[in-house]
Amino acid sequence: MSDILTRRLALLGESAYLPLLTQCLHGIERETLRVDSQGNLAQTPHPAALGSALTHPQITTDYSEALLEFITPTAQDPAQVIDALDTIHRFAVRQLGEELLWSPSMPCVLPEEEQIPIAEYGHSNIGRLKHIYRRGLAVRYGRTMQCIAGIHYNFSLPEALWPMLKAAENDTRSDRDYQSARYIALTRNFRRYSWILMYLFGASPALDVGFMRGRPHQLETFDADTLYLPYATSLRMSDLGYQSAAQASLTPCYNDLKSYTESLRLAVGTPYAPYAEIGTHRDGEWVQLNTNILQIENEYYSSIRPKRVTRTGERPVQALIARGVQYVEVRCLDINPFLPMGIDLAESRFLDAFLLFCAMEESPPLNNECRECTHNFTKVVREGRKPGLHLQHHGAPVALMDWADTLLGCIDRCAKLLDAANGGDAYSRAVDEQRMKFIDPSLTPSAQVLAEMRTHAESFADFALRQSKAHAEYFRQQPLAPEKREQFERMAQQSLTEQHELEASDEGDFDAFVASYQASILGTLSV
């Protein structure tokens, strides 16, 4: 533990400041494919009973019409966030009829590429833009890759905490600049240490053979229908998951907010020759929003994003430049197929302690560490449970187990501070629960997936379907209270009304709308 971490935690532990740690904000976004009772990708439209995917605040779609995304409201108590996610699941399962929510991150048996339905959002300009953006993802990366699902964990420390730390450290920057710099520092430490999350929560060591579409790979054969790696933790986060030659040059090391936003601004404004060859139109129809490295900022694949809530009509980069970083979005978490919601309260509390550690620990610029961070992360996602595995730390080999023990000691200090603020010992117990996975790697979700498949002599797809059915039964056995169900039904109907009103009031040509949208980021580039 660095001296800086010790001093900062001691300051937070003072009676005047400790209550601030009860004011952290949390939010979860969970993606999941809709499948039929046989485990095939649903070909049905987004159910009207769930509301409008364009305007519903808690139930939408991601890439595919069949890829649902559940978004919780934010709350200070992570237990409330988990409860909110549970409520969304119970409502959705009831409305889906015979369809199921696919339990893991890696997709079900998929149809041919062209039969994977791209999400539709109606005929308003913004709805069409969202659809064309996804068509662009299809021509750039293929539809198959876009069917991978994950969990995003949003986290912020209270706004009042940063000026207190700034004053204690005699920092002369403005409150906004100091807060942004500290979130960027958190992000750097996340890059250094997030391999530990892959070991603990990675849950995708196997995939359906059809996912590879005949592409060359280095996976092993589990059975006729399944490929895997014996010590993998998260093939989702390996180069078999999200990958892009165009984005290979986009490796912001988060040394400051300006360099991060600059890299994204340039990417959404810089043409990329292979995309230019495709063009924006084919047979008179839009196929992508532009021919630049990124169509929009959210196309950048990263394990964590510094973020700021946007205002109406504002783009993410514009919000960051104008008002600084407000929270972080952790994007590397697999869906745990053994958990009905893919995540539970213990994981959430560990994440809080881990992110507090990343925020308070010393965080020098990465510079030459970037490659080492990527190496460690990649090694753990592909062979994290391999006995005797070593990673790189400041250019020297270090045993994964030894480094994990050191990190867990620091994270446990943060957990005890959160317990002191919130009462009880739930955060410390969450760390102890994760520590057991290093003592016994068979307790990791990735090991448990393979063990279940072996025990039942089943393919990945059969295992995932069995879990999906079990989760559906779990939610159906405990339906929502009538008043809560009616609240969600009203929310769904209201979202449909809002979409209709938006479409009725929309003005202007779509091509001009896209041009204006593109110009908004180009205008930012000139600042």
TrEMBL record:
Its EC number is 6.3.2.2. GO terms for molecular function: ATP binding; glutamate-cysteine ligase activity; metal ion binding. Residues 11-380 form the Glutamate--cysteine ligase domain. Pfam families: Glu_cys_ligase. GO terms for biological process: glutathione biosynthetic process. The keyword Ubl conjugation does not apply. Keywords: ATP-binding, Glutathione biosynthesis, Ligase, Nucleotide-binding. It catalyses: L-cysteine + L-glutamate + ATP = gamma-L-glutamyl-L-cysteine + ADP + phosphate + H(+). InterPro entries: Gln_synth/guanido_kin_cat_dom, Glu_cys_ligase, Glut_cys_ligase. One of its GO terms (cellular component) is cytosol. Pathway: Sulfur metabolism; glutathione biosynthesis; glutathione from L-cysteine and L-glutamate: step 1/2. PANTHER family: GLUTAMATE--CYSTEINE LIGASE. Belongs to the glutamate--cysteine ligase type 1 family. Type 1 subfamily. NCBIfam families: glu_cys_ligase (TIGR01434). This is Glutamate--cysteine ligase. It comes from Pseudomonas duriflava.
